[in-house]
Amino acid sequence: MKGNREKLEENALNAVQVGGLKSISFRTMAEEIGIKSSSVHYHFPDKSDLARTLIERYSEEFFRALKDISNKRWKLRSKIKAFIEIFESVAEANKLCLCGMLAAEVEQLDQSNRALLSEYFIDTEKWIVQLLNEHPDEIISDISPTALARSLLSGLEGALLLDRVVGDRQRLKAQKELYMSYFS
């Protein structure tokens, strides 16, 4: 059985992925799980504490998925496809990547949360670069692994945002098609 803190985290994670940090109200969070708003403040004294928890939780789950991909004995193309599918599953749930959403609201974050967010993106790029460096013979491009990693991540994050505005998944589909053409 889930405790109040876990329920609050799950509800907040969903709410932020859909509407951003600005859409969160501690009172609404409390009502949704049937507790007093003072209980929310017990677990998360303010939004920066909540944001930190959400970034850490999301990052942990995300990097666990990346580790699972890394451990597969797949060709690079299959690993990149699995990476892209993480973003596709977020889109299918009508959400945005939590860290992508918070990047759009970075001015609302304190310095420590900005640092956590930056770490998430830098570590994701490093993971992609490492993956590319492990499979150099499977890359059909003269673009450096670092540039490919940055382009892939920013392209996927941007595609999620734009597809949400337009109401389809064509940009995410285009990103997948583009990047699949870079790997044998």
Structure overview:
The protein has one domain: Orthogonal Bundle (Tetracycline Repressor, domain 2). It is mainly alpha-helical. The longest helix has 25 residues, at 47-71. The protein has helices at residues 4-19, 26-33, 37-43, 47-71, 76-92, 98-104, 111-134, 145-166, 170-180.
Topology:
Blueprint (H helix, E strand, L loop, with lengths): L3 H16 L6 H8 L3 H7 L3 H25 L4 H17 L5 H7 L6 H24 L10 H22 L3 H11 L4
Helix pairs in contact: 1-2, 2-3, 4-5, 4-7, 5-9, 7-8, 8-9
Task: Summarize, please.
Helices cover 74% and strands 0% of the residues. With 184 residues, the protein is mainly alpha-helical.
Keyword list:
184 residues; mainly alpha; Tetracycline Repressor, domain 2; 9 helices; 74% helix; elongated
Principal-axis shape equals elongated
Structural class: mainly alpha
Summarize the main sheet.
none
Order of helices and strands: HHHHHHHHH
- CATH level 4 superfamily: Tetracycline Repressor, domain 2
